[in-house]
Amino acid sequence: MDQSKRGQDGPGLDCQIAVHGTFSLRSPVRPNLIGTSTVKLEAVEGSTLLVRSLDCLDGTTPFKPIAPPQRGDFEAGDSGPHNCQKA
């Protein structure tokens, strides 16, 4: 990820919308250095959060909640996007 392309991008296929900085896009496939992971909060001990199912690399920057969940966001236990069905 340290060698990924950085810059600006447009939201999806809509060419009529102005170009935005990469960090302003909410797409899960945005081309930036942010990694996301859905975790289960097990406990809070002072300023320490104990979580389960965290997918990250040792030595990476601390994780932070970026935005509140919105309709259509992936949730733990989901089998995929809400608009997909098994064949």
Cα-atom radius of gyration: 16 Å
**What is the element string, with H for helices and E for strands?**
EEEE
| Multimeric state | single chain
Report the span from N to C terminus: 34 Å
Mean pLDDT: 64
- As a percent range, the share of strand residues is 15-25%
**Strand pairing plus helix content: what structural class?**
mainly beta
Q: What is the overall shape?
A: extended
* Low-pLDDT sequence parts: none
The number of distinct β-strands equals 4
Strand arrangement within the widest β-sheet reads 1-2
Overview of the molecule:
With 87 residues, this protein is mainly β. The chain has a domain at 8-52. It contains no helices and four strands. The strands form two sheets. It has a two-stranded antiparallel ribbon with strand order 1-2. A two-stranded antiparallel sheet has the order 3-4. The protein is extended, with a radius of gyration of 16 Å.
Give a quick set of tags describing it.
two-stranded antiparallel ribbon; mainly beta; 4 strands; 87 residues; 17% strand
Quick structural overview:
With 87 residues, this protein is mainly β. It has strands at 8-9, 20-21, 40-45, 48-52.
Helix and strand topology:
Layout: E1 8-9, E2 20-21, E3 40-45, E4 48-52
Antiparallel strand pairs: 1-2, 3-4
